[in-house]
Amino acid sequence: MYIIKLGGSVITDKSKEYFFKKEIMNNLSKEIKKANKRCIIIHGAGSFGHILAKKYKLNNGFTHNNQLKGFSETIQMVQVLNNHVLKSLNLYDNHAVSIAPHNILKLINHKVYKMNFEIFSDYISKNIMPLTFGDVVLDNNLGFSICSGDLLAFELAKYFKPEKVIFVIDEDGLYTTNPKENNNAELINNISFTELNKLSTPLNNYADVTKGMGGKIHMISKIAKLGIDTILLNGNKPERLYATLAENKIIGTTVLGAKNESN
Question: How does pLDDT run across 208-227, given as a tens digit for each residue?
Fold first, then answer.
């Protein structure tokens, strides 16, 4: 089984409100179907969630009643994006069903306090593909806060112990520095989780409320500590997603799980 995180920067334009990249999503849906693997799909909120969440400072928790409008609007808009993704997956017969985080988990100080994993297991056992997404959820201490897609990838990886976790991003993988700002940035093909912690990656211009690449590296490091390999690949090259699911070599970055570092 595989966990696939579709980055918000791949399926939306994060600099434009509510801009869904339908063609790219459809191409990814085709490759997922072609691979015919058991998967849990997660997608980021992209421009459907981050702009509103930042405007209303939702990740800071509940501080005033004006945020309630932002809370409900953010949930509404990330579900609009989720419906786009769901429609695309099912257009190509992936038999996906949506699971909204605000219905199945709670946080405490931004960390998962409790989560219903059984619903994922039940769908998987029936050959139905669970689809979940970055969302705003209740937080026992803060009132509410953001549950990122990357956090979901970690929690689901910890519970299900997949063969691999795949992060579909808008670059070829991890670089020695930010490739959007430095032409001399070099692609990292393989890296251990101990080396990953030393990697300094500046946040890009549209670093969002989930801390952009910096936050992603932190979560990937936690997944690697579980002994699970993580692949980062370019979603604008959808054939690479199929190749990874088919266990073929691609241009991308492999973060080696702790148990595989010495292999």
Answer: 444 456 778 889 999 999 99
Which residue in this structure is represented by tokens 């990292």? 188
Number of domains in the chain: 1
> What is the mean predicted confidence (pLDDT) over 44-68?
91
State whether residue 185 is helix, strand or coil.
coil
Q: Round to whole Å and give the CA distance between 204 and 170.
A: 12
Of the given ranges (38-52, 54-68, 173-187), which has the lowest mean pLDDT?
173-187
Output the DSSP codes for 186-237. -B-SEEEHHHHTT------TT--TT-HHHHHHHHHHHHHHTT-EEEEEETTS
Which residue range(s) make up the domain with 202?
2-260
Residue-wise pLDDT tens digits, 184-198? 888 999 998 788 877
Q: Which long-range contacts link 13-17 to residues 24+ away (Cβ below 8 Å)?
A: 13/46, 13/47, 14/46, 14/47, 14/50, 14/206, 14/208, 15/47, 15/206, 16/47, 17/47, 17/48, 17/51
pTM: 0.93
Beta-ladder partners of 230: 165, 255
What is the C-alpha to C-alpha distance for residues 19 and 13, in angstroms, rounded to an integer?
A: 6
From residue 24, alpha-carbon distances to 31, 84, 237 in Å are 11, 12, 9
Residue 107 contacts by C-beta under 8 Å, 6 or more apart in sequence?
113, 137, 138, 139, 140, 142, 145, 147
- CA–CA–CA angle 193, 199, 203 (5° rounding): 120
| Residue 176, domain CATH | 3.40.1160.10
How many CA atoms lie within 13 Å of 193's alpha carbon, on the beta-carbon side? 21
